[in-house]
Amino acid sequence: MLNRIFCSNHKSFTLIEVVVAVFVLTIGVLAVFNVVQNITVYSRISSSRLTAVYLAQEGIELVRNQRDSNWLAGDSWDSNLPSVTESDILDRFDRVTTNTPEGDDKIKVSVEVSWEEKGKHHSVTAQTELYNWK
Question: What value does the mean pLDDT of the chain take?
Answer without folding.
Answer: 90
